[in-house]
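ERR on first pass: missing label on line 2. Operator R.T. fixed the label and resubmitted. Corrected input:
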Amino acid sequence: MLRRSFNVLMLSAALAVGTFGAAMAQDPVRIGVSASKTGPLAGGASGVLWPNIKLWVEKVNKAGGLKVGDQMRPIEIVEYDDKSTPEEAVKNIQRLATQDKVDLIIPPYSTGLNLATAPLIAKYGYPQIVSTGNANDLEQFVKRWPNTFWLLGKAQGIADGIVGTLKDLHDAGKIGNRVAVVNVSDAFGLEMIKTGKPALKQAGFDIVYESSYPLGNQDLAPVIASAKAANPDAFIAYSYPPDSFALTEQAQLQKFDVKAFFVSVGGNLNAYGKRFGAAANGVLIMGGVNASDPVFQAYRKEHLEVTGQEADWWASPVAYASLEILQQAVEHVGSLDKKALNKEIQSGTFKTVIGDVHFENNINNNNWTVAQWNDGVVHGVRATGNLQGAQQPVLKPAWPSN
Amino acid sequence: MLILLTGLLLGGTYTLIALGLTLQYGVARIMNLANGETLVAACFVTFWLYTGFGINPLLGLLVIGPVAFVVNWLIYTWLMQPLVKRARNRGMLEVDSILATFGLLFLFQGLMLQAFGGSYFNYEFLAQPFSIMGNSFGLNRVVAFVAAAVIAVALYTFLYHTDRGTAVRAVAVDPRAAMLVAIDVRKTAAFAFALGGAITACAGTLLSTFYTFNTSMGVIFTMKALIIVIMGGVGDVRGAVLAALVLGVTETLVASLLDPGLTLAANYALFIVVLLFRPQGIFGKRPA
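pass 2 clean. output:
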């Protein structure tokens, strides 16, 4: 069921603002989106990608539109649900390119769907700025599809982040070298454990418990019980939202106290901090932000006002940054010429909510990899490249008894 | 001991998931593929009542159960009755009801998507340690287990010790013969379907206290329920409870002693074993 819904609200807002300007007479810039609204990826996409598209379109249209050369043109969104499947995503991109003839494309949510649609997006020459996916062999990929841009950098950097943080803590004599590590057995979890495990060993850690669990499993009491029995100093979970919550709840219930407790995707959600309150203090998570940056703070506020939904502490600002980059590339180039846009994104520098972004060989090498909860706020504690604002990680206090 | 208790608690959760479907499929003969969506819808309503109005999920049961009963009654009389009327045999009704409830699944999903969006939801309720023999468990899971036990016992008493319940069982065994002894099969089937829906909704309410849920998760619950119902014997409450407990304990055993990655494999291996040796299910009657 291909549903075609024009963003009437956005458009009318734009028209209302530009009623007596020239904007009304301008053709809109048509931007196609294919991402998940149903299926297993819908949870992530509705939290991270869709609200940011809404926020961005509303903001740009309120300001008169997208500046293309000397014209201000309103943005019109053409959106389709890919139902979390690559087949549907490919069909949608095909339709956007050939039927709807959109000017620009906002790529799908998740690594898998971005990899799956890349050849087709490349065929039509659209820039594909990936904000919600990454992989390890990106150099090869970029060589084949030079119109793909990877805001989250390489998977290696993200998987190794927590290992680096633990090593720092260990070297400072704050934690021992016993680590329990678990992962969700899907593409993400497997990729992470593949790079994370050797890195742990190389850093001299002793893996005292290791296991994986099926995607979607939330009955994780046995996993925490076994991890606890192994008596580790640190716990690493390469996990997804439902299980990140379940693991934390079980750890708290079973009083599984470690000096470093790390969960991956899901720990970055604002709902995580709300759900666990003070118990979340000291929990380490994947990704992160520079929470003291006023630009980011303003963005968070706007995100809540416009979408009615809190931004998360990792992926939301990155998703928004990908749209800002697209916008600035169009402004710099002064046209919607795809070749020129690709060239500009390859070489230009862009001011975004995650700071100045410059791609090196189409890869952004400055990323937050580890962050820590403290009183309802997440602070980045480790980053790749030259990101500023990292705080010192603290040891996790014992779970509060409730 | 820890493993056994954890397994039993999980089994209680599974019992809740499966009891509704065993009534709907076993008695009303509607293979309800929207079972999981009913459950997730109840999760959302509970979440909404709790976070929006501060209504305790356990009190919410008192609202959600009856509402779900009425809604499912209406679904049965408006949507399923015409299929029952035109079906010439059980096979035909099964195929028709699968197709109809498959459509219902998307309708429910779409409505929830409109109302709540696709993100993950959860809330904190009774997430406190509860100590049983020196091991601590989530109080919310213990409550769900107790509720599962209460519902199962009540259902069993109703089915085996009341006239109305005997009528329901008669319809499950043979709708035609039931008609001969002056049982209003249509009404009884509608009642069973509605009761099944209400139980599934209550399950959703209880599960939402410890699960993270979103709009797209219904199918996970439908699958689990289906396996349990078929393992236990279609329409048999005792079978569903036993199958759910066995499944819960097996999964926990495998996760604790072998590898948590193998729980799904153990789950389906058990299913296959039951199908091989008792294709009619643990308590199911061999078709004559």
